[in-house]
DNA sequence: AGGCCGACTGTAAACGTTTACCGTTTCCGA
DNA sequence: TCGGAAACGGTAAACGTTTACAGTCGGCCT
């Protein structure tokens, strides 16, 4: 744990100036002999450049941030899996921020942009407050937001048409002959919660089905509470014949409950989730789910950010990923073992 | 995106020297009037300290690294979930490294320690080569290794007794009356692969069961290839009555295959996995799995590292987490609905 | 009243790089 | 042989902090 060698150490040993050392190490044109001396000195000393000094001078950290509510959620995981390699290949390190479903935490991360420890940020805010918008506008580094932001917000944006996603699912259930389609949602004051709530009502209306408040239950976006919410709904609505869940985790909780209540899926109750995470293929029965293209969104966000980091100076861009219904046994149910 | 304010800007505006600004911002004793002027100037300018400059001077980055083979693996995810909050609470950011099951990549990460962009590192190497050991010894920042390292390696180490874990599973299957216990392993040149392979043989011997090479199949540690490996094994050994899988992902692949082959689990073939990830409770039937305490290992590693970062200068410590068998329907099978 | 002490504050150096600028050397053509 | 251009290398400044050191100022003791 001794103090490491610096370019000064190398310069002394190679008998040249620190400027030459720097030039050699950065591949600028240099006489062969100088280069040789510097390189061998560097190698012998086991020199590694100091990133703080480099960042200070160059004003780039070669790091990018990814901020999401909770690393435990498989949706975010699917995104990280796409994002990480993109930045790794481009020479950036990934700094992770799990904001614990806490808007203040998100603001902290945005404030952190000013510290310049990251050159750019991909964020998935759960809610977009006025404070968020102010910080987007004032940000001194490029930001890409996954999720919807108001028109004219000066950041690149990757979104999915979750309205359409909900509609796909509701139509699917309707086509299967289901008429009492319940909906288990997450908190209404989150971006996805609000969007899915509105979309559910719309979709019913488009199909000429009545909107029955009894058919809607709100919990959070996780499996245990999702299960409890589903249980409340099931108890309240005995003739329920389908259940749409605002994400896959909720759907898994619902499947647990339905199994416990000995309601057969999909014969008695068809179940559909959203996000089409890996979990959907693991569940039993395998879960019909609306893919919101998490992987694609992650990749798109990474590419937008990389583009900015490479100096692209263009108007903010909005990329929309189309939702896609993936049907499996929880609604189509050929074989339930 | 204008250039941000620095302490110089603040100093000018407040009419004091940069030293005073720095002192105020760091809470060193200052006359009330000066403090007031500096604080309000800082607030008006929206000052945020530059982390590169701070790191350069203070020689700490307030970042720690976590390096694992692949973020997609739920075991690592369980660890991150424990590690992240520990460091967040202590004021450190988490830098993620996914090394793609590539030893050279791991070495790169270790070399990166010299860049001083992280103050410490938690790593889960898939194999520990001589080069790893050299770099551990030469490292200029504390390292915690999750997984086994040779005696005397100068790093903190968190391990689990996977030998014992395998034994627990084999004994369990044996107690259930199974005698043809197959084993689907990952690559033998990885730390876990090698350990589990040896442990399987040992466990059989302890129980007086013969070691039959036909009962062992090697693939990788993921679901698709795990499934294929399981398929090869099943085809080769018609009287198979139990299948131990080296991790849960492999077990999921095996379950897929068994379902396709219409072999009933656990009636015909009992299946057990290892790691006891979230997936085990999701699988159908729910998967008996040996918990290797991923969460505990993550937390222990984080705490060991934090201890070092807080200046603890002590001999390398080894923390061992006890494995624990978690039985579920894939071996005990009361109700397979 | 002079000297001293304590409480602040300012000056300047340092952290390890990159890079603008300028001086030196080399080489070529006339 | 000499002039000048090209190629290279060194000096020093700069990035934004922290901090050792020295200076200033007021007040108190003798």
TrEMBL record, chains A, B:
Keywords: DNA-binding, Transcription, Transcription regulation. One of its GO terms (molecular function) is DNA binding. The keyword DNA-binding applies. The lineage of its organism: Bacteria, Bacillati, Actinomycetota, Actinomycetes, Streptosporangiales. The keyword Transcription applies. This is LacI family DNA-binding transcriptional regulator. InterPro entries: HTH_LacI, LacI/GalR-like_sensor, Lambda_DNA-bd_dom_sf, Peripla_BP_I. CDD domains: HTH_LacI, PBP1_LacI_sugar_binding-like. Residues 5-58 form the HTH lacI-type domain.
